[in-house]
Amino acid sequence: GQNIDQPTEMTATEGAIVQINCTYQTSGFNGLFWYQQHAGEAPTFLSYNVLDGLEEKGRFSSFLSRSKGYSYLLLKELQMKDSASYLCVPWGGSSNTGKLIFGQGTTLQVKP
Amino acid sequence: SAVISQKPSRDICQRGTSLTIQCQVDSQVTMMFWYRQQPGQSLTLIATANQGSEATYESGFVIDKFPISRPNLTFSTLTVSNMSPEDSSIYLCSVSVHTGELFFGEGSRLTVL
Question: Which of B20, B2, B109, B97 is nearest to B66 (CA)?
């Protein structure tokens, strides 16, 4: 089984920094994905964390603590186009079923 | 990476009819999945499309309602059978590379009247 806990909605101001937290419980863990989904579009890949620590990729960074079952996505210098849903998705690995099970995600609204 | 072509992109169908959605990938991939996204909801996995064998369905989804074919490593179809308005949704084909990252098609927006 799998359980993912993220805030349902968040609001932030253009130019600011926002952190989206995620806690998870899952049987079998290989790594954790973050996806972004704009309304009416398919999800797009943001990051994948396997090891503990922070991975930085431009304005977006993702952190993982395997022992705590915890991750966060950090968005800096927010832009209006960052308004979207952000999905935290733990993955059991290709030797498992390979499938990704998505939760409800966090809907982020960026205001001017 | 993988480029996925999905069609139709949208369709309006009558209750009781069936619609087949096609998914074509530009490279051979091991794993293909079909998801559904109902209005205001997140993605729900329907099934894993297995090449040369029956698909593996998630709880709540059955082969009679959502028959899936996967004749080779680059192509799959999902049929939504005997449609009702509750089947109005976006259906997404996705493929996984060995790292687990999922690539999605553009989706097929289905409206059932």
Answer: B20
What is the distance, to the nearest Å, from the Cα of residue A64 to the centroid of all Cα atoms in its chain?
Answer: 10
Sequence-distant (≥ 6) Cβ neighbours of residue B32 within 8 angstroms: B23, B25, B48, B49, B70, B76, B93, B94, B95, B96
Q: Does B107 touch chain A (CB under 8 A)?
A: yes
Listed in sequence order, the residues at least 6 apart from A56 whose beta carbon sits closer than 8 Å to its beta carbon are: none
Counting as low any pLDDT under 70, the low residues of chain B are 98
Q: Would you call B68 an interface residue with chain A, using a CB distance cutoff of 8 Å? A: no
**Pairing relationship of beta strands A60-65 and A53-57 according to DSSP bridges:** antiparallel
- Which A residues 7-66 touch B at CB under 8 Å? 30-31, 33, 35, 41-45, 48
Predicted confidence (pLDDT) per residue in A21-80, tens digit: 999 998 888 899 999 999 989 999 999 999 999 999 999 999 999 999 999 999 999 999
Closest by Cα among B20, B27, B38 to B79: B20
B98 CA to chain A: closest CA distance, Å?
7
* Helices and strands of chain B, counted as H and E runs: 0, 11
Residues listed for chain A: 112
Per-residue pLDDT band at A98 (split at 50, 70, 90) = confident
Residues of chain A with Cβ-Cβ distance to B56 below 8 Å are 97
